[in-house]
Amino acid sequence: MGIYDRSYYRDGGLPSVAPWDNRSMVSILIFINVALFLANFLLTNRSSAITEAIRLEPALLDQPLQWYRVMSYGFAHTNQTPGGGFTIFHILFNMLSLYFLGRSVEDRYGKWEFLRIYLVAILLCGLYWTIRTWNGGPPMLGASGAVTAVCMLFVFNFPKAELLMMGVIPMPAWVLGVIIIVSNMLGGRDAVAYDVHLVGAAFAGLYFFGNLNFSFMEDLTNRARLTYRQKQRGFKVHRPEEIEPTPSKDEVEADRILAKIHQSGQDSLTAAERKFMEAYSRRVRERRAKTD
Questions:
Q1: Residue 89 lies in a domain
Q2: Could you give the count of Cα atoms lying within 13 Å of 192 in the half-sphere of its Cβ?
Q3: In the beta sheet, which residues pair with residue 76?
Q4: What predicted TM-score, i.e. pTM, was given to this entire model?
Q5: Total structural domains within the chain
Q6: Over the range 6-25, which residues count as b (16 or more CB within 10 Å of their CB) and which as e?
Q7: The pLDDT of residue 101
């Protein structure tokens, strides 16, 4: 049975949340985020050294050596409140949202396409913030933009799925989508980058309604890997479809005579040319008869 034939995709329902799977991309992403969060807290004596090394700094476009931050910030989560206290709510909210809604999105698009969606969302949100802070501004960190994109893709794919708001109040998924958009549009001027969340939501809408697919990235990667291996091994892979066979002398001559007939008519042929074409046509017919 194909994935699109299953009842919960036809009806817009939600499959039950699957148990933890170490091989799923959602689980891998959660592990990376949590590992960096704990390493930052445990190994740097609460100095946030790891977070500061990978967060997205403002006015970054003229610093090529720092461009990696346009991606790395999406895996950094603060463990300190503005007052210097410890908090896990930033990463907890993002990872819970990723787990409970991301698994269905991963099942819908596949493990590697889900990863490409997630990383492209991080990149687009990071580029937006880099341009927004061209003349300076606060640094940015966290997976919220990409997680918002995942949540909105869940809403678009399963609009009628029943969710429990705050674990208690039942509501259809499309209501969650409205809440995400409205709450971020009305967001205040605190430390939360509400506009980045909206960029993630807009990307999800473009991906879903534009019927986008990033599988071409995998094709490019495979070609690059193949080319690299060829260079490393010092030989070229033969691709018959890319090499046209060299025409024989008879084929070249037949093409010349046919071009002459097309330009000047059959009466322009010499006796030798007529004799050649008769013999050539006979050989072609014989070859075709053998293959048939």
A1: yes
A2: 13
A3: none
A4: 0.68
A5: 2
A6: eeebeeeebeeeeeeeeebb
A7: 93
| Lookup result for tokens 């008869």 | 289
d(CA 178, CA 227): 47
Mean pLDDT confidence for 201-228: 82
**Tokens found for residue 29:** 């992403």
Partnered with residue 172 across adjacent β-strands are 162
Mean pLDDT in residue range 255-267: 74
Q: Helix, strand or coil for residue 50? A: helix
CA distance 195 to 192: 9
Q: Which amino acid is at 81?
A: T
- The number of residues making up the chain comes to 292
Q: Which residues contact 80 (CB under 8 A, 6 or more apart)?
A: 46, 48, 86, 87
Distance CA 28, CA 199 (A): 24
- 17-37 average pLDDT score: 84
Domain that holds residue 37: 3-228
Q: Are residue 254 and residue 219 in the same domain, yes or no?
A: no
What span, in angstroms and rounded, lies between the C-alpha atoms of 196 and 184? 9
What does the pLDDT average to over 62-83? 82
Helix runs in the chain, H state only: 7-10, 25-43, 49-54, 69-72, 89-109, 111-132, 144-157, 173-185, 194-209, 215-233, 249-264, 271-291
Within a domain: 237: no
| Structure tokens belonging to residue 264 | 């000047």
